[in-house]
Amino acid sequence: MRYQLKRIDTWSAVKITFLIAGVLGFVVGALYAVLITLMASFMGMVGMSEGMPDEMGYIVGATGFIAVVAWIVLTVLYAVLGALVVALGTWLYNLLAGAMGGVTMTLETETSVLPATATAPVDVAPAATPPASDASTPAADAGGQDPHQAS
Fold it and tell me: How far from 65 is each of 79, 85, 108, CA to CA, in Å?
């Protein structure tokens, strides 16, 4: 079977890309936050031995805040820029596919690995439960009247 992709729905592509790029930005932001923190702690260790200026001490002390801000900014930046790039890409694809035709795909049906009998519906009658004949079972459970209950 041959199909041709004539149009991509921009909004659905943007929604999915926003989420995927946001998760990617979250991971990259976390890596940057760890890297910023490690670099600042290294600067603090080196600076203590060489007499660090007072201004550097404030920067090293604020790295936790800087790392969290970088994490948030990178997450939002990745999500928004990724969505914008995909929106532009789908708009451009729809424009060009309308003028020149879309991407042609050839699809084949896959053969089933299940035997033919397993795919046919099977009618199974529910098993009938025999009435209980045990003396310890109350008569109500066996489907009859309980002799201890008053009618």
Answer: 22, 30, 55
Distances (CA, A) of 94 to 3, 4, 31, 82, 84: 16, 12, 36, 18, 15
Q: In the prediction, which pLDDT does 42 show?
A: 74
This prediction's pTM: 0.58
143 CB neighbour count, 10 Å cutoff: 9
Burial of 61 (0-12, 13-18, 19+ CB in 10 A): exposed
Reported as a pLDDT band with limits 50, 70 and 90, residue 57 is low
Q: How far from chain centre, in Å, is Cα 149?
A: 58
Q: Where are the domains of the chain?
A: 2-101
Query: What letter does residue 145 receive in the DSSP assignment?
Result: -
